[in-house]
Amino acid sequence: MSLDSVPRLVDRIDDALPQTQCRRCGYDGCRPYAEAIALGAAINRCPPGSDAVIATLAAITGRPLAALDSSCGEAGPLVVASIDEASCIGCTLCIDACPADAIVGAAKQMHTVLPALCTGCELCVPPCPVDCIAIISAGRRWSPHDAAEARERYRAREVRRVRAPGITPVAACSASPDTERAKRQAAVAAALTRARARRSAPSVGRK
Question: What is the pTM (predicted TM-score) of this model?
Fold first, then answer.
């Protein structure tokens, strides 16, 4: 394979992937996995795509079919995240983790997931400090249109991150990343304190 043909192969592989950006394949998104496949990585590490994507990748690369690598997880129906809004403390950690801009909200305000945009990647679950995110059935299939839209949102998000990695443009003028990280941790700690206080306080009128 010539070096000139590699980018075209990567594009074809990337087009075949579901664009859930879930990282279950072991790479930091669908595009990095596509690049790895073009250089020889296994084609059977995409649980969201499962057998259909493996077959497409086999046809594109000329490699033999292989069963889904179970170390990456199991295939299954599309799922989406759902936030218990009553328990949400507005820490924004889930928003930071979402690769498809499917979560909306603001600091110290309730967040919510837009189910039509959620890829089911589950990356928002680990960083939630109050465990208020559940993964539920989407009740629908992930379509090629969903994949195309998710990829565009992911690319737009990555552009924003490159322009202002980890901090807002205003903060970039006056604070270091370490300072902003400390502020975020302090805000999360304060929000947790408020949430615990709300839960421990007796309800008005309770008998």
Answer: 0.77
